[in-house]
Amino acid sequence: MNKYHFIAIIGVVFLVYLNIFWNDFAIDDSKFIINWPLNQNLSHLDQLISGELPEGHQNAYRPIATIISALYHQIWGTNIFFYHLAAITLHALNSILVYLLTRRLTKSSLAALIAGVIFGVHPVHVEMVTYVTASIGGLWSALFFFVSLYCYLEATGKEKLNIRYYFASII
User: Fold this and answer.
1) Can you say whether the dihedral through the CA atoms of 6, 12, 14, 20 is positive or negative?
2) What value does the mean pLDDT take over residues 120-125?
3) What is the pTM of this model?
4) CB 120 within 8 A of CB 13
């Protein structure tokens, strides 16, 4: 693995999304982050696990996203800078995972670098990275998926099944 590839991918992702630090909360962010009492401390964990959501959003079950959102609120309050920093960091980490998966599948560092950079800067990810409420659920979901896939490939890629990677891919 080439550490300069990691640095390049992370640098490009941060450079492309640097302008979001001047953005405020948008769309449903105020409903989920600023004005929703269940999100403001972790004492409502049982309600978050049961699927409670703000008014108008009750038809979705997103307990992991709402718990992560409540955790963010506990740590940062409503300081938008840290929500954006977390989103860009998670997206950069997901881009690195795309690099690792591509390298694992193709055995080519160049193909992996291209895939990681394209994933990192592709416009389809703009809403997921810049819109805080979407980023909390979507970027963490992508992270769990990529880690699970990588662990599965590591578990099954040799003649003998690597049981630790296999169980990690299930979790």
Assistant:
1) negative
2) 94
3) 0.91
4) yes
